[in-house]
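Page header: ASSEMBLY MODEL / two components / 230 residues total.
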Amino acid sequence: GAGVSQSPSNKVTEKGKDVELRCDPISGHTALYWYRQSLGQGLEFLIYFQGNSAPDKSGLPSDRFSAERTGGSVSTLTIQRTQQEDSAVYLCASSFFSGQGDEKLFFGSGTQLSVL
Amino acid sequence: AQTVTQSQPEMSVQEAETVTLSCTYDTSENNYYLFWYKQPPSRQMILVIRQEAYKQQNATENRFSVNFQKAAKSFSLKISDSQLGDTAMYFCAFMRGSNYKLTFGKGTLLTVNP
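Prediction written out in full:
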């Protein structure tokens, strides 16, 4: 696609419910990243995919958070038993991973998650 | 661990004037990259400019330029001829060489006034 697409744009859920956030990266980009943007913590790295593998999940805040990527393309971030502190903007980015440390990340517009 | 500090939570500038946003960082790495991202109300993070630490020449992209002072670990963004569309949050970010994680500052909200 022309850019990184995320859906839904906004999601309101009740505490304790599960949510799925979707990211469709730029076609041909092998690397995919999830970041979380919250008022208190700023922008935080969550997880990184290279192809369908996630060599770095170090930023996932708890075991309620999981993510997968299929076909080297679309990724889904799942939050189980949502808590109010999960309220944030979840940003997805993709890049053509060069391994040279000069990655240019292209971001989507994020999903604003509100947990009531 | 790397840290990125943006000491100006908010700034404003008149249309057509020049403004400079500050950023300092702390790292023991020698190979790294620095970025400025813009986040308008649409929420999409847009790459404004990138600087390789091994390059002494300051990066420029049209009206945007940086003042990269490696020894001082300073990386400021200058916006010339400010336009109303420049109104946004601006984030300074750091990436280690051969890595992929971005470490962001807290951001500076820039308002361009007509």
